[in-house]
């Protein structure tokens, strides 16, 4: 039976860590978001943002769309926009990996690269200027309620059901914070005792997909009350764990997933018992042109 590509978004596998966890009373599960058709957890939010905007009549095929992205959201938006015959311009720092830029263009998106030194903040400023001065429509994943609601509708229920309602801790990197906000909202409705753990980089660490935002750029969808604990990881820890995930668990992912795993293992070491679920955000093949997997 044929399926729409949209039906393949979500319902990603949950697999148990085989070797990394040393605490015998704790089980750690990885949710493999790289299995989404666009290769990352961002397929969920991108689909919900586009479909909801179309359903409300906020956009149509004539709308000029634009979005600032560090990579995965852009790929997801490019894929889904093409399926709805929408034109979109994606803005990202010029130091983004070649694979990401080429993938967005392969889906038919226009890609604009901004000054690397200005980071994603510079990309956001560029996109917002186009909205203000040239009539573009921006989804603005950082303040779009449809971002976190995607995870309330899908990721949270999947984690709940796939652990037979036994999950005790949920660990997620924090970028736009959509994943952790939506999943937290759902899981806390089911069991307020479930602990939600966010992951941030240590000062002066650069981990793609994980951010410690300046106050002016803090995502508007973020609600600190929905996160019980924040664990910081260094770039070195994230890099090393990304390699260990591939070598020891057979999970080929990006650095944000390595960071989340490093945080999850720190958490596991502190628990008397528990069932921990950690998000593996994407696949490692979109980082091959970087130095992430070099010895």
From TrEMBL:
Q: Does the keyword Cell cycle apply?
A: no
Broadest EC class?
A: transferase
Q: Which Pfam families match?
A: PALP (PF00291)
Q: What does the record give as EC number?
A: 2.5.1.47
Q: Which GO terms describe its molecular function?
A: cysteine synthase activity
| Protein's pathway | Amino-acid biosynthesis; L-cysteine biosynthesis; L-cysteine from L-serine: step 2/2
Q: Which reaction does it catalyse?
A: O-acetyl-L-serine + hydrogen sulfide = L-cysteine + acetate
Establish whether keyword Ion transport is in the entry: no
Domain Tryptophan synthase beta chain-like PALP residues, every copy? 6-282
**Parts forming coiled coils:** 224-251
The UniProt keyword set, sorted, is: Amino-acid biosynthesis, Coiled coil, Cysteine biosynthesis, Pyridoxal phosphate, Transferase
Gene3D superfamilies per record: 3.40.50.1100
Instruction: State its cofactor.
Output: pyridoxal 5'-phosphate
Q: Which PANTHER family match?
A: CYSTATHIONINE BETA-SYNTHASE (PTHR10314)
UniProt similarity note: Belongs to the cysteine synthase/cystathionine beta-synthase family.
Q: What is the name listed in the Swiss-Prot or TrEMBL entry for this protein? A: Cysteine synthase
Q: Give the source species.
A: Zunongwangia endophytica
Please name the taxonomic classification of the source: Bacteria, Pseudomonadati, Bacteroidota, Flavobacteriia, Flavobacteriales
């Amino acid at each position: 039976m044929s399926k729409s590509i949209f039906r393949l978004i979500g319902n990603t596998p949950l697999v148990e860590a085989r070797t990394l966890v040393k605490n015998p009373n704790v089980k750690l599960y990885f949710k493999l978001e790289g299995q989404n058709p666009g290769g990352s957890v961002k397929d969920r939010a991108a689909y919900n943002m586009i479909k909801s905007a179309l359903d409300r009549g906020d956009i149509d095929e004539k709308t000029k769309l634009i979005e600032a992205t560090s990579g995965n959201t852009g790929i997801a938006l490019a894929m889904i926009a093409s399926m709805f015959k929408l034109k979109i311009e994606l803005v990202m720092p010029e130091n983004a990996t070649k694979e990401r830029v080429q993938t967005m263009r392969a889906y038919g998106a226009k890609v604009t690269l901004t000054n690397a030194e200005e980071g994603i903040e510079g990309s956001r400023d560029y996109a917002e200027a186009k909205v203000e001065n040239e009539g573009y429509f921006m989804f603005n994943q950082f303040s779009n309620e449809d971002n976190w609601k995607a995870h309330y509708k899908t990721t949270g229920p999947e984690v709940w059901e796939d652990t037979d309602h036994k999950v005790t801790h949920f660990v997620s990197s924090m970028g736009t914070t959509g994943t952790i906000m939506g999943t937290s909202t759902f899981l806390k409705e089911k069991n307020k005792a479930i602990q939600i753990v966010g992951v941030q980089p240590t000062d002066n660490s650069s981990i793609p997909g994980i951010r410690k935002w300046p106050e002016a750029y803090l995502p508007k969808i973020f609600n600190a009350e929905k996160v019980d604990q924040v664990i910081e990881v260094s770039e070195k820890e994230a890099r090393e764990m990304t390699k260990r995930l591939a070598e020891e668990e057979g999970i080929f992912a990006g650095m944000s997933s390595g960071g989340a795993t490093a945080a999850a293992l720190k958490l596991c070491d502190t628990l008397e018992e528990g069932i921990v679920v950690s998000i593996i955000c994407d696949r490692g093949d979109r980082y091959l042109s970087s130095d992430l997997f070099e010895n």
